[in-house]
Design goal:
By secondary structure, this protein is an alpha/beta fold. The protein is built from 5 helices and 7 strands. Helix content is 32%, strand content 19%.
Length: 149
């Protein structure tokens, strides 16, 4: 399993997701442009002292990430796709989350077959990015029985 943040904007969200990735030994990919510098104090504070344990790769753009030959790309959306708990995850999935203010661009959503969402029935646009990442990653681990690998 891998987490991919496409053009993340908010340092504490990325820091929290980095901490999640450190806790689960999950590869983290950051696709530029980033809305912050990688050494941002808020980013580091959210990740605390876990940064040395995060396997993170920063890519200058989406095409560079694709050149790493990801197995299956699973896009996230606040409104489109299968409910995350109904989707059949595989161990080699790359779960892609978009920028906090806009989500993934329509051209990406149109290009890839696999899309998932977390149902929302309250009066909010979306869940916090790091909350959503945790929910989907742990469901993927549960489905693939990949805890502790």
């Amino acid at each position: 399993m891998q987490i991919v943040l496409y053009q993340p904007e908010i340092p504490p969200n990325t820091g929290n997701i980095a901490r999640l990735c450190a806790a689960t030994k999950t590869q983290l990919h950051l696709i530029e442009p980033l809305g912050f510098k990688i050494d941002d104090k808020h980013l580091k504070r959210a990740g605390l002292d876990y940064w040395p344990h995060v396997s993170v790769t920063v890519h200058p753009n989406w095409d560079h990430f694709l050149s790493t030959d990801p197995k299956r790309i699973v896009l996230t959306s606040a409104r489109e796709g299968a409910r995350y708990c109904d989707f059949q995850f595989r161990e080699d999935d790359c779960i892609v989350l978009g920028p906090e203010t806009t989500g993934l661009p329509n051209n990406m959503l149109d290009r890839y077959e696999h899309k998932i969402n977390i149902p929302i029935w309250g009066k909010v646009r979306s869940l916090n990015l790091s909350t959503a990442a945790g929910i989907m990653l742990y469901e993927a681990f549960r489905q693939t029985d990949s805890f502790g690998r």
